[in-house]
Specification:
The complex is a heterodimer of chains A (about 450) and B (about 325).
Chain A: H1 2-7, E1 33-34, E2 40-44, E3 54-55, E4 62-63, E5 68-71, E6 80-81, E7 86-95, E8 101-109, H2 127-136, H3 149-153, E9 163-168, H4 177-184, H5 186-200, E10 205-211, H6 215-224, E11 231-236, H7 245-253, E12 268-272, H8 273-285, E13 291-297, E14 305-310, H9 315-321, E15 332-335, E16 342-343, E17 357-361, H10 379-383, H11 390-398, H12 402-407, H13 418-422, H14 429-443
Parallel strand pairs in A: 1-14, 9-10, 9-12, 10-11, 13-17
Antiparallel strand pairs in A: 2-8, 3-5, 4-7, 5-6, 7-8, 13-14, 15-16, 15-17
Chain B: H1 21-43, H2 46-68, H3 79-89, H4 97-112, H5 125-136, H6 138-141, E1 145-147, E2 160-162, H7 166-173, H8 193-198, H9 210-222, H10 229-244, H11 249-254, H12 258-265, H13 276-296, H14 303-320
Antiparallel strand pairs in B: 1-2
The chains are: A alpha/beta (about 450), B mainly alpha (about 325).
Amino acid sequence: MGKLMSISRPHRIRKIKGISPPHHKNTEFSKVVKLPLTAVVNIPMKMHSGKPAIPIVNVGQDVKVGQLIGEMGGYVSAPIHSSVSGCVQSINMHDAVTGQDSVSITIASDGLQTMYPDIKPPKVTTLQEFYDAVRDSGTVGLGGAGFPAAPKLAIKNLDELDYILINGAECEPYVTSDTRAMVADYKNVYGGVKLLLEYMKPRKKIYICIEDNKPEAIRVMEEVFADEEKVEVFVLPTSYPQGERKVLVYNVTGRIVPEGARLADVGVIVTNVTTIAVFARYIATGIPLINKIVTVDGSAVRNPQNLLVPIGTPIRELFDFCGGFPDGEPRRIIVGGPMMGYAQPSLDAPIVKTTNCVLACHETDDAALMLTACIKCGRCLTACPMRLMPPNIESAYSIKNYDALKHFKVNMCVECGSCAYVCPAKRPLVQVMQLSKEALWLQK
Amino acid sequence: MQYMDKLTVSVSPHIHDNSSTRRIMIDVLIALVPALVASILIFGWRVALVVAVCVSSCVLFEWLFEKITKRPNTIGDYSACITGTLLAFNLPVTIPLWQAVFGSAIAIILVKQLFGGLGKNFANPAITARIVMFLAFATTMTNWYSPNEGTSLWVYPIDGVAGATPLALMYRTADTAPFAFLRSANVEGLPSIWNMFIGVRGGSLGETSNLALLVGGIYLIIRRVITWHAPLTFIAVVFVLSALLGQNPIYHLFAGGLFLGAIFMATDYVTTPQTNLGRVYFGIGAGLLTVIIRVYGSYPEGVSFAILFMNILTPYINKFTETKPLGGMKV
């Protein structure tokens, strides 16, 4: 580790420190268990940022595992494949985890999991074929943002690409699905990195970025890439939001991504570690993104563990498999981590491509949430990784001062929740940021 | 869709640290305890009486004002208790109690609530009330008792003599020639440095024990309630500048209300800058003003005026020290 740390620091910068929420990595060593097949899956057509996919199957039609059921709705979009074999039951609007509606395809499983006969590894020999394969795999940014992988990788200035950062920071509390992917699915991670080396040809390095509270993943990745000259494991201190892409770029390369610019403009690409494993698997086997490692945890769950889940499975099934709620109904259900995840009103939401964690907790922190006036303590200013001034944004929003909102750069907020986490007055700052962005957008 | 009864659907983040406004205020109150104990030891039990009167009237005025104006009751955040304690710490032990009640009304109603309550006031309530009382009750507000050394401090009326504060003594006899402090700075009637450090001297009842105030300040820094920036620069500037002006810097540190002001007033969140850089500017400004008022002004004590002045400048310091967003472009 000592050697590792020293060679992993090519420069000296004042790193973004972030905050230190409790880790709760309870499922760090839990092997990935395959979730038994559920009767009905519900696959939304919007599991990525950009345009939703368009259904290309009809009600009553038989589908097989891996069959294309939704085609891309635009350049920034992703195809969607069936995760089960069975019959299309309905194509309806359905609540998504974020609370917005999305067209969803409901498929009744026949329990056979017959593979789609056309599945075969794509031919990849050129850069364009590589991009096409990434696109066809249905891969989106699996760290949570869900930006389609193909347009992310297809940068215009490929000859200026210096670094590719493989994001295995996994800074959200509880979540260990990327950790398990690095430990258990290391072959595909290796395959993904080799593809990036071969076709993207970064001028300097590919860094596998991991926080120092995941020694097992660090060890495995170190071994896997021991002979690769251009690939290095970059151990980062554990802090939140270490895996936020601009934070990661700054803390690893020292480069600052200008407002409104793409990471590629400073010669960097950041991609999640599971993302590269998924398209590597597609290029090796032809199996697209149809299932996902999901961490199931929280104080209300009997057996917290990591599950391999077909996309579209209702979150209820995951909790049932993990022993249900022995101490009664939980108080909170969260899809995603506790810092940026979405609280759910029911257990019906489906697992989507970007889901990496579901939590059921007994404790709500409402008791601790004694809302008071802002006392101007300045803790949020210290916590903000983007160095914004949340109190100023809040007061600008409260008087609808749009010029001030622009001046204080609310558009640069990454909604990581650090400000609200440390706020002693428990101001709902993330909500203010979201509403401010929307207000500015509507005003345009 | 089957909804569940008990689920809380709230905005992220779904976890928060265990800080709260009340917890911060309790920490400040805890940090004030050593100085309170020291003060009772030095000046006798009337200290407890003055503090109790100030705290209870501050809480009462806050409750009354909010009741009358139909605002939510905020006495549970304990900020009024701090204002009351700090105001009492700024008064002489001999203060008539009705004047203490009057000062509490100024602090809570005029300075805090009329500007919108906690978080909205631009000036430190305790400091401003102290200044108002200082101008209104010039005689009782400067009626200092000097505790006698070596006598029992447990009895009231205290076994002391009416006298001036060390700063006032210095003020009368100060040698303003440059670097006079290098010579012996023994002014007649001045207590020893050690006595000033532990607080056995005349002065406002909470300001005298620098040792106890320092203990409280270290507690607040360890608890991360305050940062070192404002207090340290404040004290450092007073030390250096008073030395440059030929005064005895040690006496400037320990003889007045500097520690009370620097540790508990210059760190009040609401009325001081939000950024650490801003806090440094605040400390420098307050230090400069304190020494200038003490050396050239007509009042022996400059700390409260300096802090009030910097309170007024705070919005401008905040404006001046806005953070630069990471990679942010000009609008």
